[in-house]
Amino acid sequence: MRSAPQRGKCGTAHFRLWASPRIVGELVKLGIHVAKATVEKYMVRPRKPPSPTWRAFPNSHVKDLASVDFFVVPTVSFKVLFVFFVLAHARCRVVYFNVTEHPTAQWTAQQISEAFPWEEAPRYPIRDRDHAYGPAFRTRVERMGIEEVLTAPRSPWQNPLAERVIGSIRRECLDNVVVFGERHLRRLLGDYLDHYHAWRCHRSLAMDCPAPRQVQGLELGEAVVEIAEAGGLYRHYERRAA
Predict the structure, then answer these.
(1) N- or C-end of the chain: fewer Cβ atoms within 10 A?
(2) How many beta carbons lie within 10 A of that of residue 67, not counting itself?
(3) From CA 179, how far away is CA 195, in angstroms rounded?
């Protein structure tokens, strides 16, 4: 037994998936003749673009993604040092960094080999179009089986995690110290990254750390103590028995 048709109601959810020619055809079958342009005039345009955006790529391949980038640091003697780092997207971990005064393509190629010596390289490293990623670098990553993802010119927003890490390093570390040279900068960055990975909470990780940090409950003690790191440059807090 067929159910009685419901009047005055339509499946709007289905219409959202229909293109204008299908809607026109359906109306014709109902004896309603409407121009295609008229249908398109009253169709609700989707807020999201119909094709995948750049953001969809990192979201879909987060486990296979890493970012490689440079940032510059001036020293007390007015030298300019270049910091190269590799950031794994999965847990926002800086898996490698090094410092140089002359970032050539050969030097950068050697760094990517040292960052992933045991065939653990990410599938898709994201980088910009800097001259430091010259033919020697491109040849090295190709031999490692890495498929590079290049950002558009002058588009740092396409590599947002790397830019965010650089900003954090500057605000929380380099803006508060005077850098004397390469060795000093390596030590400063090493101390900061130890704090960054083990103690610094990240909003993108639901307020966890890149190295998952255990929640310390009252069973560990009622007293909360402040622990200074790197000579007091950073601090974290732990529970201790009274």
Answers:
(1) N
(2) 26
(3) 19
Give the C-alpha distances (Å, rounded to integers) separating 158 from 33, 170, 207.
47, 20, 23
Contact 110, 116 (CB under 8 A): no
Residue the block writes with tokens 């410092």: 99
Q: Tokens in use for 205? A: 């990780």
Q: Cβ-count burial of 84 within 10 angstroms (0-12 exposed, 13-18 middle, 19+ buried)?
A: buried
Domain span at 166: 59-205
The answer to whether residues 79 and 194 belong to one domain is yes
Q: Note the pLDDT tens digit of each residue in 185-223.
A: 999 999 999 999 999 998 888 889 999 998 888 888 889
Residue 85 forms beta bridges with which residues?
A: 69, 97
State pTM to two decimals.
0.73
Residues in Cβ contact with 15 at an 8 Å cutoff, skipping those fewer than 6 apart: 23
Q: State both tokens at 88.
A: 């794994």
Q: What is the mean pLDDT of residues 157-178?
A: 94
Q: Are residues 83 and 115 in the same domain?
A: yes
**Helix pair angle (160-172, 182-198), 10° resolution:** 110
